[in-house]
Here is the input.
Amino acid sequence: MDVEECIPSRRSVRAYQDKEVPEGEIRKILKAGAMAPSAKNLEPVRYIVITDKEKIKELSGKVKEKLKHLGGKYKERAETEEDIVFYGAPLLILLVGNREKWTRIDCALAAENMMLQARGMGLGSCYIGFMNKIEDERETLESLGIEEGQELYSPLIFGYPEEWPQDKEREPEVQNWIK
Here is the structure.
């Protein structure tokens, strides 16, 4: 799949088959992240790869507990048995780095490379912003290998989609074009 096809067909996938992603495919996704540009070429992004279903389920439970405190629809959905956090994805990759000025952006650049690589390989992906709800749980972060002084910036899930969401045509909102 070429880049002109890959970019517009990359969608956030929120339903996955119960099928593991082979280690070789995971390594290709990680390599795509490592190839992303970074400020001053510091390459600050570190990757935590989780394929253990029980660990993913445990993390989902911790995030759901945090969502209950938001009230409303979040509380309602968090009280169900449904996996509203990781959507049954068999692969969770956390992009972490030191708390420095540009690391958040560097992680975002790596994350997009990884999601595009996954799409090109027939895998779905989704950025899981809710995962950041556990950023104050030091014990949980340490259990994942996130060190003191590091922050969780980009939690991503990957897997084989139950079905592909429809492509959605988008046009850029050009605010100004100076010629």
User: Anything to note?
Assistant: The chain has a mean pLDDT of 94.
